[in-house]
Amino acid sequence: MMSRKCVPFTPFERELSRATVALVTAGGVHRRDQEPFNIADELGDLTFRVIEGEVASSDLMVTHHHYDHTDADRDINVVFPIDALRELAAEGFIGEVAREHVGYMGYTMQLKQMYEQTAPAIAEEIDKRSRADVVVLTGG
Amino acid sequence: MAVQREIEMRGISTVLITVSPEASRQMRPPRALYPRDFKIGNSLGRPGMRELHKRVLREALGLLKEPPRPGEIIEREYPEYQALSSKA
């Protein structure tokens, strides 16, 4: 069990209007041409998918069996607000949309592997390749 | 969520938009917004409600500029969501 006292916290001292923002969702979002998450395995799927910033929202879909994603199937922005984020960049509220975002399936019985492998691997991907100053997470 | 903590530990500021506030509270997120009474699967609202999606996203990002309250879940009301959901 993680310490309940310790909350990792990075102060944000920049301006939002200059920040690069990435999205990370546990909602099982991926591109239609990427391998879907494995919903047949009762233990869950510990992998993640990298979604590039220029992706068309119509090229995205959800594979997840632990929530009702009917609404996300109609408009992916309800769990992965990529079009909304682009509009905030166009309006100058944020600086820009990051070059990379991440989707994973936030459901697994393999919590140890989630904590020790998947979570650090997603953080590494964001840190090394998205060039984001800020990450917005959804799901869960 | 573990992913949020890992990203924050690398020196990148994060904010979680949660629709499962009880579960999220256990994880003590660095920053989190709960749009009150939004259903699971509707983190930003209902389909097509782009202005609402942007408003939730702006307010989540806005938490980065507010006094820090690490471990707390900030609740906000979005009456336009309720109005649409009660009709649905």
Write up this protein:
The complex is a heterodimer of chains A (140) and B (88). With 140 residues, chain A is an alpha/beta fold. Chain A has one domain (16-138). Chain A has helices at 70-74, 82-90, 111-130; strands at residues 20-25, 29-31, 48-52, 60-62, 96-97, 100-104, 134-138. In chain A, strands 1, 3, 5, 6 and 7 form a five-stranded mixed β-sheet that branches. A two-stranded antiparallel sheet of chain A has the order 2-4. Chain A is globular and about 45 Å long. In chain A, 43% of the residues are buried. With 88 residues, chain B is an alpha/beta fold. Chain B has one domain. Chain B is built from four helices and three strands, in the order H-E-H-E-H-E-H. Chain B has helices at 2-9, 21-26, 50-62, 79-87; strands at 13-17, 32-35, 74-76. A three-stranded parallel β-sheet of chain B has the order 1-2-3. In chain B, strand 2, helix 3 (50-62) and strand 3 (74-76) form a beta-alpha-beta unit. Chain B is globular and about 40 Å long. The mean pLDDT of chain B is 94. At the A-B interface, helix 1, helix 2, helix 3 and strand 7 of A face helix 1, strand 1 and helix 3 of B. Strand 7 of chain A pairs parallel with strand 1 of chain B, so a sheet runs across the interface.
